[in-house]
Design brief:
20 helices, 435 residues, globular, mainly alpha, 53% helix
Length: 435
């Protein structure tokens, strides 16, 4: 049987029972708009019915459901694994179990490798203060190195010189810990120190494995839902790793450049095409680089929606972007930065076309002009265009743009925003064709 979501074993009647919020923080959390809708939301029963006797998934029927009403919380984790390309829907249950086991073994090997360098790994503790200097020398005050009063063993006893990769990795571990402390702190789930440690372990191991990107602030916001939804730490890691394949270039940074700037440039181009007056006004108030949208794209709107609504937004967005070649492309390419791409319109039969998400189908029909533009860019564009009149009337400077966007946080409807994003995409395609 495929892996079960963490909450599937704990039946509940309302969303608040799946993702309980601390009573004293309820007033600080945006209102949740997502509602479970019978006949529209993908339920556990519908999910199980979508598999053949051998375990092959009817992905077309699943995509239809998700795009209509999201996913029931009890099965979010296992469904996400398919949406993100962790598993091939055409694989059998046995094949997926074998792959899952291999991945768990690989994760265990990486974790053991990290534990040799930092003994606190896997101990239900985590580091919140630097453990080495910039040149790789150990800091001799272990009492400051973890979230626990019992800090013996935070550092390994190895005194051999560290290579550049190890120094870079150890230098980021305390920053991961500081971010873990701040991540989703309104949720009761993270009152449990073991859950915080699980989040730290996954982020630290990812930073070691993907040392080209390492760890950048914001990754904890993306990883946290996987930790909550998937009980097995290795499964949560691989789910996070597959999300990062989509967005990792946003986190690439050096002293002069942040990867997300590429998407901001694309956003600027989209607005210039669909709403030239708004684009001109944004340029006039010194917002032409669109840095005010940095956070939206960097952490996939986690701060603009409630926790539940952000999960709904992600899964519907991933369903809309779904490409049946996703798993095969990840399997064949060893470089996780590689992305699925198509060149020009593709002739495809209707049966196979149903295995693509709405946005991906529209891209295929639209040709090659927008193949590399993520749906998230059109989602931001739709938010900006929705408030066109207010921006033009009230925004006298960049601070006003930021203020107007801030007023929208927590007041956005994810379903309406996604539908608007698809309309903006169509508008963009039509206008580009006429240029």
């Amino acid at each position: 049987m495929d892996n079960l979501c963490l909450f599937q074993r704990h039946p509940a009647t309302g969303l608040e029972d799946y993702f309980p919020i601390k009573p004293e923080r309820v007033a600080d959390v945006p209102k949740t708009r997502f509602k479970l809708r019978s006949g529209k939301t993908l339920s556990a029963r519908r999910w199980q019915a979508a598999f053949s006797q051998d375990g092959i998934l009817d992905i077309a029927s699943v995509l239809r459901r998700i795009q209509r009403g999201g996913i029931h919380p009890s099965i979010k984790g296992v469904v996400w694994e398919f949406l993100l390309g962790c598993f091939d829907p055409n694989s059998t249950s046995g094949e997926r179990n074998e792959l899952r086991q291999r991945r768990r073994e690989q994760f265990a090997a990486w974790k053991a490798e990290c534990r040799k360098m930092v003994a606190i790994m896997g101990s239900a503790k985590y580091i919140t203060a630097p453990i080495i200097t910039d040149d790789g020398q150990p800091i001799e005050d272990p009492s400051r190195n973890s979230n626990s009063q019992d800090n013996n063993g935070a550092m390994s006893q190895t005194v051999a010189p560290l290579d550049k990769k190890a120094i870079q990795w150890k230098r980021c571990l305390h920053q991961i810990g500081l971010d873990v402390v701040r991540t989703d702190r309104t949720l009761i789930f993270y009152d449990n120190e073991a859950n915080q440690s699980k989040l730290w372990d996954i982020l630290a191991i990812y930073a070691w494995v993907d040392n080209d990107i390492g760890y950048v602030q914001g990754m904890s916001d993306i990883c946290s839902p996987m930790v909550i939804l998937l009980e097995n730490e290795a499964d949560a890691f691989w789910c996070f790793e597959h999300v990062m394949r989509r967005v990792r270039e946003n986190f690439r940074c050096d002293t002069n450049f942040m990867g997300v700037q590429s998407q901001l440039t694309t956003l600027s181009q989209v607005i210039k095409v669909i709403d030239p007056n708004l684009h001109q006004h944004i340029e006039e108030v010194d917002g032409g680089e669109y840095l005010f949208a940095f956070r939206m794209l960097m952490v996939l709107f986690r701060r603009e929606f409630s926790f539940v609504d952000s999960l709904y937004l992600w899964e519907v967005m991933w369903a809309m972007e779904y490409n049946p070649n996703l798993y095969a492309s990840y399997w064949e390419l060893s470089d996780p930065s590689a992305a699925v791409s198509q060149n020009g319109p593709i002739k495809i039969n209707n049966k196979l076309l149903k295995q693509y998400g709405k946005y991906e189908r529209a891209k295929m029909k639209g040709g090659s002009t927008d193949q590399k533009i993520a749906l998230a860019v059109f989602l931001v564009a739709s938010v900006l265009e929705t408030k066109n009149k207010r921006f033009l009337k009230e925004a006298k400077g960049l601070d006003d743009v930021v203020r107007i966007l801030g007023d929208m946080s927590g007041n956005l409807d994810a379903k309406k925003a996604l539908n608007k994003a698809l309309k903006v995409h169509r508008k963009y395609i039509n206008k580009v064709k006429k240029l």
